[in-house]
Amino acid sequence: SQKIEQNSEALNIQEGKTATLTCNYTNYSPAYLQWYRQDPGRGPVFLLLIRENEKEKRKERLKVTFDTTLKQSLFHITASQPADSATYLCALAGNNRKLIWGLGTSLAVNP
Amino acid sequence: NAGVMQNPRHLVRRRGQEARLRCSPMKGHSHVYWYRQLPEEGLKFMVYLQKENIIDESGMPKERFSAEFPKEGPSILRIQQVVRGDSAAYFCASSPLGAGTDTQYFGPGTRLTVL
């Protein structure tokens, strides 16, 4: 069955450093992959979408890569800030407009 | 443009009662999705609806749970005869008609507590 895996351990980094989160998937070839941010007690917020024919996408301090050979996406936050602390979710396009979600990786940026 | 709205934000029910969760999608969006999220767990897809149609309900328990998205008014997720295991955060998301991608816009969620 289709499966998404994200780092289960929380990531702790120092302010100003680059955070890198990983999303691996199996048994599927998605047309695109998305990253969302979720803060405690709130709904996920869409951040970036990258298509299968795109290697890299950037938005301000965010960068996403998509390697369809490795079946992996990397999500980078450069010059990280304490306000970036949240859980980051990876989701890939499934069938019938249904997204398949990872469990998320918790990021803590320490001042 | 108002975002996705859900109400109530918090709902407390006793075992055996009914819970009704409402979701108003963003203006211009005709696709609605319901998810359940338990503490320390990921988003679990429940059901995908378009106006007056259930497209995919593969994630929704066959008993006690139902969903609708009428021609007029919000989408409703209904849980009958609630049990303690139904306690969770329920999120609604919407996406535009005809969008080539499935970017979903989430509401703030309804936190259901069953006593």
Account of the protein in words:
The complex is a heterodimer of chains A (111) and B (115). With 111 residues, chain A is mostly beta strands. In chain A, 0% of the residues lie in helices and 57% in strands. Chain A is built from no helices and 11 strands. In chain A, the strands form 2 sheets. In chain A, strands 2, 4, 5, 9, 10 and 11 form a 6-stranded mixed sheet that branches. In chain A, strands 1-3-8-7-6 form a 5-stranded antiparallel sheet, with no helix packed on it. In chain A, a hairpin with a 5-residue loop joins strand 9 (86-93) and strand 10 (99-101). The termini of chain A are far apart. The mean pLDDT of chain A is 91. With 115 residues, chain B is mainly beta. Chain B has strands at residues 5-7, 10-13, 19-24, 29-37, 43-50, 53-56, 65-68, 75-79, 88-96, 105-106, 110-114. In chain B, 0% of the residues lie in helices and 51% in strands. In chain B, strands 2, 4, 5, 6, 9, 10 and 11 form a 7-stranded mixed sheet that branches. In chain B, strands 1-3-8-7 form a 4-stranded antiparallel sheet, with no helix packed on it. In chain B, strand 7 (65-68) and strand 8 (75-79) form a beta hairpin. The interface between A and B is medium-sized, with 19 and 22 residues.
